[in-house]
Amino acid sequence: MNWSEWLSGDAQDNSTKLGLFASFCWRYGWRGGQRGNKYTTIQLKLASIRWYHKRYVGIELQHAPDFNVLMRGIRRLSGPLAKKQPITPAFLRLLHRRLDFSRPRHRLLWGAVLIGYFFLLRRSEYLLVESGRRNYCLAAANAYFADRRGVRVPFEAAVAVTIGLAGAKNDQFGRGAWRTMHATGDPVLCPMKALYHLLRARLALQRTDAPYLCVDLSAQEVSRTFKWLASIIGVAPRNYATHSVRIGGATALLSGKADGLAIKLLGRWMSNSYEDYPLLAAEATFGLSSRMI
């Protein structure tokens, strides 16, 4: 078509090109799987195009009203967004029983999942993702046993775990964040147990010099393990992935009557979008019916 790779300041021309791009994504997707993208995915791709032009070409993309009509049509025809199911404490205990802790790789996976669960981590903040390692991925030097004030202490004197993140995908200025989670007293589900297993696994794998806490553990490996366990217990494997860890942590806090601001700060959400993450568990509705009579 002899089109330039860049869009222009012509709103109608931009609408034509962006409309064709959006229609292609809706019909075919982008990875050759012949499976179209949903409205929310297309919106993210269009936002990336707008940002790229603003950053590298210096233009604010405009489009004509007919483009808005097209996007409303795509939104109406897109199926509902399928949310992943949360990893629950019961699911974690089942996983613990199935793993072989004499195998360092299993111990590494268990520690990583627990760290992600208790600190509401995004997968890119502690795992190796498809496109590589993010520069804000949790470093081994930034995770340690701590006292009640978050000060580094030996394991024997510790009552908590502190981690420091150099940034996040929603932290454009690299402010970073430090978070401390205290021991639960549970022999299985505890942030102190998580870090202990990670350090033991690093030692057994002879990777104590690895810069990142979870060494080379990938999101794909964790997701595959979740799906494997889901198939064993008779639930749909497609409902579980690495995102289930962050959803599970947020859901557990909501069920435990944690303050909304505490959930928001722990998960490092910049807006109230965190409210879309938790699912309403049965325990969270206990006593509600008695308030209605």
Automatic annotation (TrEMBL):
Keywords: DNA recombination. Transmembrane segments: none annotated. GO terms for biological process: DNA integration; DNA recombination. It comes from the Eukaryota. One of its GO terms (molecular function) is DNA binding. This is Tyr recombinase domain-containing protein. It comes from Phytophthora rubi.
